[in-house]
Design goal:
The strands form 2 sheets. An 8-stranded mixed β-sheet has the order 5-4-3-6-2-1-7-8. 32% of the residues lie in helices and 18% in strands. With 552 residues, it is α+β, with helices and mostly antiparallel strands. The chain is built from 15 helices and 14 strands. It is globular. It folds into 3 domains: 210 residues, 2-Layer Sandwich (Heat Shock Protein 90), CATH 3.30.565.10; 69 residues, Helicase, Ruva Protein, domain 3 (Orthogonal Bundle); 159 residues, Ribosomal Protein S5, domain 2, CATH 3.30.230.
Length: 552
Amino acid sequence: MKSSPPAPKPKPAAPPPRATLTAVEMGARQREISVSEFFTKNRHLLGFDNPRKALLTCVKEAVDNALDACEEAGILPDVAVKLEAVANGGAAPPPSQATRFRITITDNGPGIVRQQIPPIFAKLLYGSKFHRLRMSRGQQGIGISAAGMYAQLTTGKPVQITSRTGARAPAHYFEVQIDTKKNEPRILEKKQIAWESPRGTQVAMEIEGRYQKGRASVDEYLEQTIIANPHVKLTYVTPEGETKEYPRTYEQLPPSPREIKPHPYGIELGMLLKMAQDTKSHSLSGFLSSDFSRVSPAVAAEVCKTAGLSPNARPRDVHGQAAENLYKAIQSTKIMAPPTNCLSPIGERALLAGLYRQIKGEFYTAVTRPPSVYRGNPFVIEAGLAFGRAPEQGEPAQPKKAIPLAEGEDDQDDHELARVIRYANRVPLLYQPSACAVTTAVLDTTWRNYGVAQSRGSLPAGPMVIFVHMASVWVPFTSESKEAIAEYDEIHKEITLALRECGRRLGAFLRRRERAHSEFRRRNIFELYIEEIVQSCNRLKGGRLATAKLKD
């Protein structure tokens, strides 16, 4: 009997139709994103990665603004920084366990006019420094308003600002927040108040943060700020209530930098086209000579001739292939380097004053390199070095216990690596050292040539602090949080040359010290045999000599 064929398997059920959107529906979902909304979701780009770093970033942005305002107004800065642990519904916890802090920064600067207070503190990308080619700590118009935005996100509290422009002017008090959808300030309160300061600004905000001493802390930031800014008087009240005074050690303000026009070598083709559209000049030659630095009428005529364009052509009519020819002609024409009066380097004397004040050592040196240029932007590299350990004031130097050394071993303190402190426009850079051009240049320098131990690919060993400062109209940071300097060949070269000069001076000092030690050991070699000589003399005299007196 034949078996019946197997029943056919049922076909799987068809999947439900996938929901699709039409172009009209997708288009209806598109909307503009404000810069405030973007940075609200991406606050790590601005340095608010974690509570500890956020606390430092808020203090840093407020202090930078205070110093910039004082220096631009020609006032020797007096800045007060106060951190307070804030209770969140109960008694205030110890600073090491607190999660909320109130930051108060007070300066003696020129103050802020009433109309400008809300946008300065509650509008991102609003400031006076972005479009100016002159050295300043701030660049983007983001910092202090981003700190206020972080306070708004984490605690919901507004930024409190008190400012007065003069002893006879009223003091204005504002409480502001950011409208993140519109990137506009929202004023919660404004009034005139009685304020004891005759002039200046005070900023207070409450944020979520974590306070911890040590590396990359608020304490270290303020200490390093004093090194690069010895003309600043700083008062710091820690969360524990301790008051630290950093007196002014240099009584002169740094030279005031001047604003310059962009250099032709530092612009791209798109920027050239934009400037040609926005210029007030009616001729191409006038545009080149009036809107750029170091371009004289003769140089402008040479550029036009090389590009095959008429000097009398309208700048707005230059586009397409003609614009590319003009751009290539600019790059091929020899133009003087941009002026450097837009920079305000620390200077060797002031830098040494800062190093003496904050770092204990035996040897100090500082170098200021001649100005150089990257992408048409002038910059100056300064380097300093402190070597050795000096005993603390009031403490006698403790004698070191002699330890036998192996053959060929040097009596050097090489168990610790050198410390590198980095600055950009007088501001300490505490994060991302491995991504910074300064660290790369320090690692690439052969410190063994100068008598300092160094393993391959690592920092030099020994009790040494290396200081590097870059001053520029536009520092090429690797991110918006301004934590590391980008790697440009011109910048790397200048840092390396400055470090080599410091190394040569250190090597000369170490050689002099070694010669002095050798001479001292040679003169005192008799002490190695004094015991045997005393015993021999005593035996010759039949043991009648006073050996203790003879040793002395």
